[in-house]
Amino acid sequence: MIRAKKSLGQNFLIDREVLEKITNVVQIKDKTILEVGPGTGNLTSFILKKNPKKMFVIEKDDNLAINLSETFKDQLTIINDDILQVDENLIFKNKVTVFGNLPYNISTEILSKWITQTNDEFWFDNLILMFQKEVADRIIAKFNTSDYGRLSILSNWKLNVEKICDIKPESFSPRPKIDSSLLFFSPKKKFYKIKNPKNLEKVTRIFFNHRRKMLKKPFNQIFNGDQRVLNELKIDLNLRPQNLDFDTYYQLTCAYENLRS
Length: 261
Hints:
Largest sheet: 7 strands, mixed
Strand content: 15-25%
Strand order of the largest sheet: 4-3-2-5-6-9-7
CATH architecture of the largest domain: 3-Layer(aba) Sandwich
Oligomer: single chain
């Protein structure tokens, strides 16, 4: 019997209605599909019923990978590896649609990796991903809200994000203690050209380290009070970090890179 491993953040999705809903989010037939964290293969079965052109799964757990191989035979290609160590650009020559009931303990790491390591050309066309609801709320948060922060800004840099639905704990085995949310991501055709994503992470980290303070301190820490940046971006230093919208943070990062070059 396959048992979920707490150390790998495993919670297997078992609700057939939810599984059906997930596979109806996008067209699957004749497309190349990647599923991350397939577990016991419940979602995998529903995806295969929709007749994809080809299907890949990435599963770190050795026992689960063996079980998937025995269950699905030659219906899919199994990559028995840690998703954080996989270079998707080397594996996929054409764009893939990604499904993932992501391990809760590394879900934001996975998303951050896909955003920061993707160049102007995306290796995926859509992402349909499951997160803890509180994490999903931070991803989709808009400025001037309490959930808005670094994760919202990074997620919305290159991707359009839409919430599909919330999912209750009883849809999983074992049951998590919290609700989950299903999000849909699609690449933006236009986004700010930041030279190094680490600079966006640095700028937002410094600003949101002082979340409840006015902008003057973090701004001076990064820009040393440079009035030209203030004038150009028309920033009021009496505001707080959550009061600046997405574009302002991307512009701040570009300004930071320009000053350093």
